[in-house]
What does this fold into?
Amino acid sequence: MKKILALTALTLCMHAAVAVTPGYYVITTYDEEDETSLDFYFWNVKAPNSPAVDSPEIAVGHGVTSRWFTELYASDIHTESGGTMYSSMAWENDYMLTQGQYPIDVALHTMVTHYQNANTGTGFEFGPVLQADIDYLQLNGNLFFERDYEAAQANSMQMKYQWQAKYRWKPAFAFGLQGFGELGDWRDWSPLAEQSHRIGPALFTTVRRVGGQEFKLEAAYLFGKIFDKEAKTFTLRAHYEF
It folds into this structure.
């Protein structure tokens, strides 16, 4: 029974049955004017004594201007008992407010998500994206607010964060740490035991080809909690830019 309850709770989280969705990928600022990208995302969550929950995602992005990047996502979710099913469609827009004239670059991130589960409504996420470069070190810190609108169950605006410290050791290789967390209602955080916090190592590689093409691969393995439940998370992002 404990296994069934744990899996059910975790699966509900993955389906965004509550107002806030866990963070898996760090949003960063960058200039991609006139560049088009194809992305494959994958995350896997494994709670103790429970089957894993997976989600593959496909995305197409474009740098509309030197400041504005937009991307469209389609996501599936997979569980051992339910198989693979369509989960959601999302539209992300990131707009850079600064571009190197200050020690910290700032961008505005927004994302609108339409869930397959009609009871969940439509999710809206927004917040600042911060990035600083110190020699070989890149630091990122983001604070996002999220709420589901037209949902069957009443919900409030939730707060979550993500951060990254990346050391660019070689032109084609970098390593670092990533962290994510969900704090609860933005005006009244949940008790610490009910919050979610995750941290773990991350690896990055970049391959550039003549003609402006670029391939990036990013992977991270995180330890901590997702909605107050202990879980280990693996994330992968493959990015092809042309």
